[in-house]
């Protein structure tokens, strides 16, 4: 079956800084997962149901995290202002986050040892998104991204980083 | 307690059910968090902590160990660190984004907790902490720690044994 999930076998892909990339997500502001890309090879076939659950759970986590961060921040926030999150970390992974003004959310999970330049990585993915997705006349904004141009752009960027 | 870059904001202690048992604001800088807001945030964090561990891209294969939840959150204005003990209690601290000594600080606060809270015969575990000794010790220790990282003290408290 044709799915929008793009899984490559990057079995031993590590960035120059030895960080292992896990999964890249792009969500829009109402929770639709526009794009999901796993960077580690999975020997078993992709289970669509599990993937849907993962997408929903990830969005829910990010949403709750935002609410929490806006509450706990020592900075007094102006009306409608949000506290920008950079990343959170557990013992097993880091989750880097970038939210645009339009409510588009980019998130990538990596191994716990990544350097803090993942914000730059997400910015680059955003620029690729603008170039290959937004500027593509056949793409409807707010729908799932299934564009070979975008996939190729992400591929090339990630490969360049690993070398 | 404060310098330009090494401000510690607030400490929260959450019991294993997700209920807040202690909180302390250390500085007059920044928004003071109080009362009900605290309780709400403690529970929120408790849920987030568990959620994050179930969403791990790396499968957790060893059962019987506590869930490996959120340890750090970094935002533009603050850094949050969480120490989860084997008994399920969580020590959460917020500070300036470039404060890098928070893990150590939390471990020492945990030691103060075992000495002044758990060893108090009148204290009931998982209940709110209302012990003046503990309060004073924590405030003093956080003050000492922040000062020592600025190079003002000759030998920080945590090294004087």
What report would you give on this structure?
The complex is a heterodimer of chains A (163) and B (161). Mean pLDDT of chain A is 85; it is low at 1-13. Chain A is α+β, with helices and mostly antiparallel strands and 163 residues long. Chain A has helices at residues 48-72, 118-134, 148-162, and strands at residues 6-7, 21-27, 33-38, 85-90, 94-99, 105-110. Chain A is globular. Chain B is of the alpha+beta class. Chain B has helices at 35-54, 102-118, 132-149; strands at residues 8-14, 20-25, 70-75, 79-84, 90-95. Chain B has a five-stranded antiparallel sheet with strand order 2-1-5-4-3, sandwiched between helices. In chain B, helix 2 packs antiparallel against helix 3 (132-149). The chains are: A alpha+beta (163), B alpha+beta (161). The A-B interface holds A 22-23, 40, 54, 57-58, 60-61, 64-65, 67-69, 71-76, 83-93, 95, 109 and B 9-10, 29-31, 33, 37, 40-41, 44-45, 47-48, 51-58, 60, 68-78, 80, 94. Strand 4 of chain A pairs antiparallel with strand 3 (70-75) of chain B.
**What portion of the residues of chain A fall into strands of 2 or more residues?**
15-25%
Question: Looking across the biggest beta sheet of chain A, what order are the strands in?
Answer: 1-3-2-6-5-4
Largest interface: A-B, 32 and 35 residues
Name the overall outline of chain B.
globular
| Annotation, overall tally of beta strands of chain B | 5
């Amino acid at each position: 079956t044709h799915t929008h999930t793009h899984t490559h076998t990057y079995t031993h892909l590590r960035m120059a800084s030895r960080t292992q990339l896990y999964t890249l997500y792009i969500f829009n502001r109402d929770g639709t997962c526009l794009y999901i890309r796993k960077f580690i090879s999975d020997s078993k076939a992709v289970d669509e149901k599990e993937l849907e659950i993962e997408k929903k759970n990830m969005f829910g986590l990010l949403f709750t995290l935002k609410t929490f961060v806006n509450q706990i921040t020592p900075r007094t926030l102006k009306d409608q202002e949000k506290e920008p999150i950079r990343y959170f970390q557990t013992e097993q992974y880091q989750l880097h986050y970038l939210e645009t003004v339009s409510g588009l959310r980019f998130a990538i999970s990596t191994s716990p040892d990544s350097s803090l330049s993942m914000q730059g990585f997400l910015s680059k993915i955003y620029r690729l998104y603008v170039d290959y997705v937004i500027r593509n006349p056949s793409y409807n904004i707010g729908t799932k991204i299934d564009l070979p141009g975008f996939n190729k752009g992400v591929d090339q960027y990630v490969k360049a980083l690993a070398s | 307690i404060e310098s330009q870059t090494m401000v510690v904001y607030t400490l929260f202690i959450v019991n294993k059910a997700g209920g807040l048992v202690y909180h302390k604001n250390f500085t007059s800088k920044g928004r003071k968090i109080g009362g009900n807001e605290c309780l709400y945030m403690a529970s929120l964090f408790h849920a987030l902590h568990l959620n994050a561990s179930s969403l791990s891209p790396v499968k957790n294969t060893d059962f019987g160990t506590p869930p490996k939840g959120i340890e750090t959150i970094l935002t533009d204005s603050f850094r949050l660190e969480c120490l989860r003990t084997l008994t399920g209690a969580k020590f959460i601290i917020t500070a300036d984004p470039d404060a890098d000594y928070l893990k150590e600080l939390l471990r020492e606060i945990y030691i103060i907790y075992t000495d002044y809270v758990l060893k108090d015969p009148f204290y009931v575990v998982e209940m709110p902490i209302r012990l003046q000794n503990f309060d004073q010790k924590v405030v003093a220790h956080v003050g000492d720690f922040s000062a020592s990282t600025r190079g003002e003290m000759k030998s920080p408290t945590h090294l004087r044994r």
